[in-house]
Amino acid sequence: MKKLLAPEGMSYRGYIAAIALLLAGLGGCSKSDNASIPSAPPPAVTVYTVTEKPVGSYREFVGRTQAHRTVQITARVEGELTRRGFTEGAMVSEGQILYTIDDAPYVATVQGAEAELERARSEVERTTGEFERGQQLAPEGFLSAQDLEKLKAAASQAQSAVKAAESQLAAARINLGYTKIAAPFAGLVGKTHYNVGTVVGPSSGTLVELSAADPIYVNFQLEESAYISYLQKRQREGAASAAPALDISLRLPNNEVYAQEGSLTFADTQIDPTMGAVNLRAQFPNPDGLVVPGMYVTLLVEGREKVNKVVIPQSAVQSTQEGYTVLVVDDGNTVAQKVVEMGRRIGPMWAVDAGLSSGDRIIIDGLQKVRVGIEVKPIAGAVDPTTGAIAPLENGQ
Hints:
Number of strands: 21
Oligomer: single chain
Domain Multidrug resistance protein MdtA-like beta-barrel: 215-301
Domain Multidrug resistance protein MdtA-like barrel-sandwich hybrid: 69-200
Subcellular location: Cell inner membrane
Helix content: 25-40%
Structural class: alpha+beta
Shape: rod-shaped
GO biological process, one term: response to antibiotic
Radius of gyration: 46 Å
Domain Multidrug resistance protein MdtA-like alpha-helical hairpin: 111-179
């Protein structure tokens, strides 16, 4: 190790002492400077004082819409399609003519049946007259009993022929009516399977499908465990208890909530063995035809029986390894963490099943500036329950 050389005119020991004094002075200056720097103020955060609100039980189900009435329109007589009376995918009214089949052969059949009926009626008049004259001649011996019986049989046969002709005419008129295929009810028509000029008949199958979608059905399923729990609850309350009061709404595929309220109209009597669930059906008014059959939708079901629960903004909830947590500010304005059990979501809000109490102050803005254990400056804030927007309360602190 090399020995430090003292400056000229200064002893080595004096040089070491001077360095020690210099270092001591520097250390003193450092302590003095640190003492003069003020400590940072506590970070400001927006807090929300939680309160309890009435919340009903809530479930969401994926469902599929179905027309409440659907028929396959078919041809009941054979012939060439001469006219189509609808626009594919449009609404049609009850009784509207959807297709017209060439009726010329059927008109001819009706005319032939009418002529045959007239001939049969004329034959009745002739045979009846002969029988009546025979009845007058027989007592005087001018007509044998055997001949009179023949006249009676001819008159009876002629009357039977009239009935047969009437039946044939009625059938011919029915078939003529079948050449005009009308909508049995108002609804939506789908895509036509046959065009004008095609020969169709009873064996042609479906010409077009017609469905009535007002009201509209929504089919969905409830798992068997939940269904059994519901039945047990009903049993405890008494067999005569009324069906549960439910508010049922619909979220469409574009995430908008449908304006019409629905009702539960059907529960199957057995469990679907392939899915382990019971089939249910809700019904919604659909006067504008906005909800189309075959859509996948979300059914929102809320019980009208409500219990008080803490409701907080979803933005205040953090997902950690411990589960869902929130940061709270205690009476000393110190940050602490609480693990919470979350329930149903209500727009931008979230119901809390456990972990918070009414009056707790949770941090809703400024989470990134704090950590557990530090002191903060709380500023009271409010949350719009519809949009989730956060705003400070006037004079709130």
